[in-house]
């Protein structure tokens, strides 16, 4: 009977095995052989940035790196690899948090961790319908780990934890940087020699962003996130939707951010073939990828550096010769008035070093678009043209410049009483009263000595809408984020309309000022300013520019709705400011061969800078400015200079004019020097020979 039972059981088993093999054999075989294909995108170096003459401004420098790719390893396997790797490299533990330490303590002390929550507590959590059992038990365990228990972790443990932390933060099948800062040659060699014992670990060449001109334009160029930081949280959803990985380095600010899609490049695509257990069977390269495209900026670094040096020298000099203690910054923008290309965007600021107590000069080029000030009389060209447009004055209209006494208000006057003057003369000597009378007429009022002056509040809108055509009080459209438009005065009392037309009510940025004067210089086209001139394909040769992908074309934002002869009239007024007797810029530009034109500005304002908390009431200060262009008949460069909080009361230094004069001189001297160098080059040189000559000259 026993033999019979065994025989029957074996017969059933054999029958069942045969049935499975014959009927389902092919299905199970296909299941065993089933593979999965996972495509992984590997990052590539970012594009570079060059100045308008071909000098590298932003580059990538190679650096040794150690990476880890999770190919389906378990937690225990990752921890074992981390322990082995910790014996070969030194890993910084500063970023290890207390939560990381608690998680690690639980991993290496599972039994002790399990005792942190009693069986009764676990049962209560199971019975709670709203509770998440695993999450709640784990949280209780974390809360009950004591500081004494965490102190059990040694420095070696923390180093292993720091490495494991990097392992676990990456995506599956995607390389995660474990260390790329300060990897020594010895570490790189040791890890390379032991890769067979370190599953998932690899040695490779990474890159870091390098800025060739330290503390120059750095604020405009922007920054890139680190490999540890990856995509900033506030931008995560945006970039994940565009096929980025969480640990990708991205531009965080300004040019690096604005042109992220251009600079980021085309990722290398790798296909990993795995079995159903996750083991990689084969790796196939789909595409090699390509580093990001290069940006050629319109900025001339030679001119930029020279301008920054001038600002620094004159800012320090002004502090010693009549400048208020509040004076701490100055700004300069040079722009091609016909193309909108920004040739120089410079700003310097004095800041106090908290450690040494000394002041140091820092880059504040961004202040040209992110800060706004009362600009003063530089806006009077827009005022005259607005008066023409509204029909309240005509070219040649004469107005008596004398102090105005409006009932209940202080006397409003020019810096000097000029008597009957024309529009051109008003620009040349910077008459306030001529502008006041223009505003009164726009507002539909009539001035009578010591009488009230009712004006139509719509005059504010009329003036501001007209000013906006020049770029004042609106976005200039520059290819940089976070541009500020300025502040509009809220009160509509008549006296403030008079302040508005002399630049002492609304605030403007220095970029708006250069766009405004460029609009007049080129005959009425408001050009969109831009810092990027070209986008080019990357080449393997580090110092060469590739083919042009896109050339940023000049863009007209709007054309002044004004007669061309009116604009020419104001241009003549600006020329007289710089070149005729009594012109307010004559002493600085009267002897220049490059035929300058411009408008000076001084504005009474209230201090609103970083030291305002030191005062019960903001002190009154003077902002000084200048806008101009040259040559006056066929402008090739426009300039705007702003020196906020230059001095307090009365008259002070002329830092705005000294800076403007020196920068314009530098522009034309540099142009002449380059023309001479170009004429010396033999015409029969090949393109490559010319490049070699340039390199030798640079060296």
TrEMBL record:
Boundaries of every Penicillin-binding protein transpeptidase domain copy: 331-664
One of the protein's GO biological processes: regulation of cell shape
Region entry Disordered, spans: 672-699
GO cellular component terms listed in the entry, alphabetical order: plasma membrane
Signal peptide start and end residues: none
Predominant location: membrane
Documented EC number(s): 3.4.16.4
Location of the Penicillin-binding protein dimerisation domain: 43-284
Entry keyword Membrane: yes
GO molecular function, one term: peptidoglycan L,D-transpeptidase activity
Highest taxon in the source lineage: Bacteria
Subcellular location, record wording: Cell membrane; Membrane
Keywords tagged on the record: Cell membrane, Cell shape, Cell wall biogenesis/degradation, Membrane, Peptidoglycan synthesis, Transmembrane, Transmembrane helix
Reaction catalyzed: Preferential cleavage: (Ac)2-L-Lys-D-Ala-|-D-Ala. Also transpeptidation of peptidyl-alanyl moieties that are N-acyl substituents of D-alanine
Short name of any one Pfam family annotated for the protein: PBP_dimer
Lipid bilayer topology: Single-pass membrane protein
Pathways per UniProt: Cell wall biogenesis; peptidoglycan biosynthesis
Family according to the record: Belongs to the transpeptidase family.
Name used for this protein in its record: serine-type D-Ala-D-Ala carboxypeptidase
Species per Swiss-Prot/TrEMBL record: Cytobacillus kochii
Lineage: Bacteria, Bacillati, Bacillota, Bacilli, Bacillales
